[in-house]
Amino acid sequence: MRKIADMVLIFTLCCSFCACSTGTNYNSETEKDNVLHKVKNAEPGNSGKSVNQQTAGLKILNDTETLASCYTDTGYYYLTEDVEELENGEYGAHLMYMDFATKQEIYLCSNTGCKHNTPDCPAVFVMDEFPICTSGIFSYGNKIYVLSKGMDNEGAVTQDFYDPDGQLAETEASQAALYEMDTDGTNRHKVYSFDVGLTVEDTVLGNSEGLYFVTKKLSESTAEDSRSVTTSSGKTLLFWDADTKRAKEICKLDFDDGITRKIMGCLDNALVLSGVDYGKELTTDDYTMSDDDWNDMYKNSTEVISTLDLSNQKLSEKYSIDNQTLHSMVVVDNTLYVSYKDTGEVKAVNLENGEEKLLCSFTQNYIMNKLGDILCCQTWDASDDHTFYFVNTKTGEIQNSPLVNKALGWNLEFKAESGSKILVIYDYEYTPLGDDSYDITQYRYALIEKSDLYAGNGIYEPIKMIGKGC
Known about the structure:
Blueprint: H1 7-14, E1 17-18, H2 29-41, E2 59-62, E3 75-79, E4 83-85, E5 91-99, E6 104-107, E7 124-126, E8 136-140, E9 143-148, E10 157-158, E11 169-170, E12 177-181, E13 189-193, E14 199-206, E15 210-222, E16 228-241, E17 247-252, E18 261-266, E19 270-277, H3 284-287, H4 291-299, E20 302-309, E21 314-322, E22 327-332, E23 335-340, E24 345-350, E25 356-361, E26 366-371, E27 374-378, E28 388-392, E29 398-401, E30 413-418, E31 421-432, E32 438-449, H5 450-455, E33 461-462
């Protein structure tokens, strides 16, 4: 995606500052302790299910575009995006936990009488150590991990940059680090520090041996209009061994063909990469061209889907799509699903043997997400229809669910899977701002059976919230 808005502005909007915490709102300390005891002794599940107990294949554990957030079979974890002033004047976020059995939210802290406003509280993540809105949380094995990192502003265009020498300037990157903790939030400690100056991407993968990260070096260059453009170099796949706690470079992810690729999925021991081929390597001035000129260039480009076998670092092109045709795509297991706006077709492409077949055809086929082997689709034109169309990838059956967010009629947000149930944001508390926009003051979460979600039966099991959610 091109032209990220002013990153400082995004950071400011994302991270609002709040008053001091007023503490928990439990029915009793015993109730809280019971939940934490269960969390401590629970078997990990889903993204938290011990990868060692599954196949040795790769799995996406954390990213920003699919349902790869931090949850187990028993509950959902998240770091707040709002920060609160602590007792010592610092600011920090909080680690929250939603328990699926009791359907309540708690601060992930077992300290009796804690107000969660000091750095020694297990649920407090001090802002200077854990940058807000950019640090990722995920589960792996029987542990919870936090990737503390700065903002990845590759592709950002900023105004009023001037380099008197006209040379590339390195952008400052805070030193990223990986932290590990028990599932009840205790025993948090740093297990790895990335090299100074490296930016770490959001996507994290894991297999039975350890974790995979993408690192790169960001730099700024000046366009003809004196705006600066942030680009990357030295993109590298890094492997962190879960046993030795050490990391090593697996391979470079720059292939000297002018195509910047991102991870969109994985196979058993291969990455699925997506990139746009413009027929040339992009220059600084290309990033600052007008939107019309950029759109013309984009329409003459091709989206290329490739696999990268990690055993031999072999890059193999598997599929390509002309970008004059509006399309969306997602990877499920070893299959690439591609939808086309003009024809309404949804095609399934086997990434191992290249076999292509038609799965189904319908108008509202923009792929927004996936839930297991179900494609979650919506309309292409952001119309008043915010319902989901669920496509079974095994049968091609389509179910349209009329369920939308209760408060504003927006689409539901899917956060976690637990057996036959999905955790969704199904309602809001909000304040109208008078300009057709809203300040969301609380996100309302609930569990719902998958069968009810797909059929449109709004039988929700609400989570008792004590925080804002995110």
